[in-house]
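User: My advisor, Dr. K., asked me to get a structural model of this assembly before our group meeting. I'm new to this, so sorry if the format is off. These are the inputs:
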Amino acid sequence: MKHETVVGQPIVSAGRFILRPPQTSDAGLLSLYAGDRNLARYTRSIPHPLPPGTIEAMIARARNPDRKEDVWVLDGAATDHAEVLGLISLTRIDRKQSEASYWIAPAFWNVGFATEALQSLIDANPHEADCYFAEAFQDNPGSARVLTNCGFDYLGDAEAFCVARNTVVPTWTYTRKTR
Amino acid sequence: MAELTYRDLQPSDAGALHDMMSDWSIVRQMGGWPWPPSRDVTDSRSRPYPRENGFVWGVFLGHRLAGTVGVTGEWLAYALSPRFQGQGIGSRAVRHAIDQGFARFEIDRITANTWDDNHASYALLRKLGFTHWQTHYEHAQARGLPVLCHEHRLSRHTWIA
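Assistant: The format is fine. Below is the predicted structure of the whole assembly, which you can bring to the meeting.
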């Protein structure tokens, strides 16, 4: 399969899958996964119920040359996994610093996909960042374990608004230097 | 009460702006100013804000630069020289900037950040009707480390009411 290219965003190999830019044909599977309340409640920005067009708009943003956030799809098609397993993204927040975020479809939880994706992306370091930030909701310790598995260090407590829950949720913030 | 005037920053303001931004008590509360002070950075900011989605003005008391205030996109930022603090100048300047921000741009809300230890700025925002939205860590350039940062929001509806 030929993947559509997105300006300034490489395809990253990650063992059981590849990380590639999202394409319009991903909208169906991404909408199916993102529509799951058990997923949305652990993200900042996915609303629940999922309004029509939300994922299509996200894909369009991710393909905009002026974007601040680079989004990769975890694509397992080449290794007999599902074509879409989840998403991982990096957002430039300051000089040489980026924030990482990710979600895995609930059907594929607890098999290490998030750790594999995050570790591969940091190794590739497409933003050439000196430092990465990431956060996890405090009621999602599995997500925090992904960060510590990838060498992130705990920085402190904060809180973030969760659209799906319509409230502020306590978070743990982590950081990792790359050099 | 002495009248404040507002205008775009110009290269001729660079000296006064650099004096102000060479004060650690000011710069440590800023998001994107360097420490030690850099005259090159000051010079690069001593000119009119280049985009159409906002403004950054010098706040003048008479001919003296008292501070800066701006609304860019939906973001409010301000700084006031210590010599002019405690006189209500910051409050008047920020109030004016919010008025102008909502009048000039089609934005539904204005957002402002305060570092966790900036109690004075938080009190000012609260007085003006801002409410806490969320809290995150952000790299403070002058301090050279991540600092807890509170994000506050003011809706157009609240401001008009």
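One thing worth pointing out at the meeting: The two ends of chain A are 35 Å apart (CA to CA).

User: Perfect, thanks a lot.
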